């Protein structure tokens, strides 16, 4: 029992002392990080990343969603079950092509962004 009480007291003392020293060091690290973040070169890259994120990254999810909607509409259209299946398959094939094009566009934009970043 005495060993457990000593352990708890030791842990509590270590926590209090560590928290005081830790907070000061944390503030120093935080200030340095904020200085780096505010550098013009860093902000330029942040702006480029935001622009990239707005354009390329949304191309693929939009193509996927549009494809799913088209297939669903085709599958629920009028006609016999076989006609609806055929319409859904055609819509799925066209949508697959759209998704492939969107994926290729996104991949090309990523490559261009990396090339621009590296300066090559």
UniProtKB/TrEMBL annotation:
Ranges for region Disordered: 90-120
Biased composition (Basic and acidic residues): 108-120
Name this polypeptide is given: YtxH domain-containing protein
């Amino acid at each position: 029992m005495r060993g457990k009480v000593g352990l708890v007291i030791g842990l509590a003392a270590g926590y209090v002392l560590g928290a005081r020293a830790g907070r000061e060091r944390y503030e120093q690290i935080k200030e340095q990080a904020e200085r780096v973040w505010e550098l013009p070169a860093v902000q330029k890259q942040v702006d480029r990343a935001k622009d990239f994120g707005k354009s390329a990254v949304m191309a693929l999810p939009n193509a996927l969603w549009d494809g799913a909607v088209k297939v669903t509409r085709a599958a629920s259209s009028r006609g016999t079950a076989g006609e609806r299946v055929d319409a859904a398959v055609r819509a799925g094939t066209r949508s697959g092509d759209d998704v492939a094009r969107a994926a290729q566009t996104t991949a090309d934009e990523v490559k261009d962004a990396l090339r621009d970043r590296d300066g090559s």
